Amino acid sequence: MNISIQNISKFLFPSLVLIFAFCYLTNEALYRTLITEDSIVEWLSFLFLILSGFSSSVLAYRIKNRNNYFHWFFILFAGFCILAGFEEISWGQRVFGVETTEFFQKHSDQKEINLHNTFQGTVGIKTKHIALLVMFVYGVILPLLAKKRYDFIWLKERFLIIPPGFLVPGFLFATILMLDFQTGYEEEIGELFFSICFLLLIQWNHSVFFSKNAFGLIKHEEIQTLSVAHKRSA
Q1: Which of 64, 137, 144, 207 is 20 to 30 A from 173, alpha carbon to alpha carbon?
Q2: Per-residue buried b or exposed e for 76-115, using 16+ beta carbons within 10 Å of the residue's own CB
Q3: Gyration radius from the chain CA atoms
């Protein structure tokens, strides 16, 4: 299963980059249509985020059944993905024709009912820049350091799940696209790439957990040791 997930990642992200680049070079009007709000790209991001959230919650439940504890990362990751998914479509505002209330008219920089645009309008910091930096560290820097045999004791003790190395290209493409180099809407493609990375990350952890009773960087023999340490410190 891991091999198939690696193969998917190996070919999927370069293929998507080539497809979008070809579309931009040959039919820019179509390209812009694909990456605008309420387009297929945005709805695919929503779909992958919701699937990631659901899959992560299932994994957290199965870890609880097997090892008798709730893994905080998969629970929080599930909540994050579901929240991000509905934020992506502004909680269905345009789908259901909901008018923007006075509060969001005043504070949201795009006059939409969602948290990230309200944060941007209030604080003046683009959430895409925060996401870019966080995801670059999480999806590119940490996996590369792990590949160089860094032990990450501090992270292991806190059961933080780091993406496998084969997802680094996907996260890297996504962070570059978040810079909006061409039309100003490339962040939509970046968000799509992130959502795909999240789903592949969770599916990979499903596979590792059921084949080796491990996950992320944490090996089977380390799970019991860390679990005991957590119980003693609780």
Answers
A1: 207
A2: ebbeebbebbbbbbbbeeeeeeeeeeeebeeebeeebbbe
A3: 19
DSSP 199-216: HHHHHHHHHHHHHHS-BT
Distance CA 6, CA 9 (A): 5
**Side chain identity, residue 160:** L
Q: Are 170 and 197 in contact (CB under 8 A)?
A: yes
Phi–psi pair at 215, nearest 5 degrees: -165, 150
Q: Taking each helix axis from N to C terminus, what angle separates 2-26 and 28-35, rounded to the nearest 10 degrees?
A: 130
Instruction: Judge contact between 185 and 35, C-beta under 8 A.
Output: yes
Tokens (6 digits) for 203: 């599916």
CA torsion angle 168 171 146 127 (round to 10): 170
pLDDT in tens, 165-206: 999 999 999 999 999 888 989 999 999 999 999 999 999 999
Give the chain's end-to-end CA distance (angstroms, integer). Answer: 36
In 3D space, the residue among 171, 163, 169, 170 whose CA is nearest the CA of residue 146 turns out to be 163
- Please tell me the distance from the alpha carbon of residue 205 to that of residue 159, in angstroms, as a whole number: 13
- State how far the Cα of 128 lies from the Cα of 198, in Å rounded to an integer: 17
Task: Give the number of C-alpha atoms closer than 13 A to the C-alpha of residue 95, restricted to the C-beta side.
Answer: 10
Tens digit of each residue's pLDDT (9 = 90 or more) over 114-149: 999 898 888 888 899 999 999 999 999 999 988 776
Would you call 93 helix, strand, or coil by DSSP? coil
Q: Looking at the whole model, is its pTM more than 0.85?
A: yes
